Amino acid sequence: MSQSTEAIKHELKIGLDQSGQRIDTAVAQLLPEYSRSVIKQWILQGMLLRNGSLCKPKDIVYSNDSILICATLEQRSLDHPEAITLEIIYEDESLIIINKPVGLVVHPGNGHSQGTLVNGLLHHCPELADLPRAGLIHRIDKGTSGLLIIAKHLIAHNKLAQALMLREVKRQYYALVQGEMISGGTVDAPIGRHPQNRVKMAVVNHGKPAKTHFRIAERLNHYTLTDVTLDTGRTHQIRVHMQHIGYPIVGDPLYNPRLKLPKHSTDECNAALRDFQHQALHAYRLSLNHPITDKTLEWQVPIPKDFSSLLETLRQNTADNHN
User: Is the pTM value of this prediction over 0.90?
Assistant: First the structure.
């Protein structure tokens, strides 16, 4: 990762709309291309003056206050743009919607410096190098498929990140779970790092709030296809919550590592379950308000071929058992 520094200078006047607000909030409204966390850092580093004096992020500003910003902004760029085939569902001057396949890692990291979604995005749209996390608003795991949001400039990034935080972005998933559910419901349980296994997450008392809603989409013999929506976006949230209530996701190598073959199932069904080597989880629907036009947009993508094939085999096995 390489870095460069950009000099920032702004002279602002606080208006009536910002009067009575915290200074970091007011300045973020006047300069939406910068996040509030960046503005807070400028204040703490003495790079922002109110009426010629140093201030604190929680200080209140009033109409006609003068704000002077003389700051620097680190521009981080990720190396190794790569020509990776991306399934782009939608793109305009402000955002990109991607349908991520199973097996594609989202961010470069240990063991994955190349061949990631970010590498492909930087080749497709080089200006993403100057945005946090190359413009990604959220992420899904390597073994999960489906829809992802990428912002193409800072204003869009900040608005979409705030919309996600305010639960204004709607995400729906199909999850095939082990066990026959009686009804849908909600899991409201905090998630944090697993106390013994640092690779895993778990429901823990000291974790961050997490809420998952699920309903039954299809009943199958020994399995249930669920339709899941998220109020929050914790790491591995659906996988952890489904395991927590006793319905782990089929094929999940981390939270459901021991394959349990159902009784009285066909050889074809058993083979299909053994061959399915990733969590049966797909982000199939996404809706949001456009960060610039505020128009409501929605996208939907079909279940991937291997997931769909497994469902067909389970349906046939269900029919055979009912005959």
Answer: no
Any idea what the Cα angle at residue 229 is, between residues 163 and 298, rounded to 5°?
60
Q: Which residues pair with 201 in a beta bridge?
A: 193
- 21-54 pLDDT tens trace: 999 988 988 887 677 888 998 999 899 999 999 9
Helix (H, G, I), strand (E, B) or coil at 132: helix
Question: Could you tell me the two tokens for 13?
Answer: 């006047």
Determine the 3-state secondary structure of 126 from DSSP: helix
Q: Give the range among 87-96, 207-216, 264-273, 296-305 with minimum mean pLDDT.
A: 264-273
Is position 188 annotated as part of the catalytic site? no
In percent, the amount of the chain with pLDDT more than 70 equals: 93
Q: CA–CA distance from 178 to each of 216, 221, 227 (Å)?
A: 13, 10, 14
Crossing angle of helices 267-275 and 305-322, in 10° steps, is: 150
Q: What is the mean pLDDT of the chain?
A: 89
Catalytic residue among 141, 188, 227, 275: 141
CA-to-CA dists, residue 209 to 27, 59, 163, 288, angstroms: 29, 29, 18, 22
Longest dimension (CA), the chain: 82
Side chain identity, residue 6? E
Q: For the chain, which domains are there?
A: 2-74 (3.10.290.10), 78-165 (3.30.2350.10), 170-322 (3.30.2350.10)
Query: What pLDDT band is residue 2 in, cutting at 50, 70 and 90?
Result: very low
> Minimal CA–CA distance to 137: which of 161, 155, 106?
161
**Helices and strands counted in the chain (H then E):** 7, 15
Confidence of residue 86 (pLDDT cuts 50, 70, 90): very high
Q: Where are the beta strands (DSSP E) in the chain?
A: 2-13, 48-50, 53-54, 66-77, 88-91, 95-100, 145-151, 170-178, 185-188, 191-193, 201-203, 211-220, 223-230, 281-289, 296-300
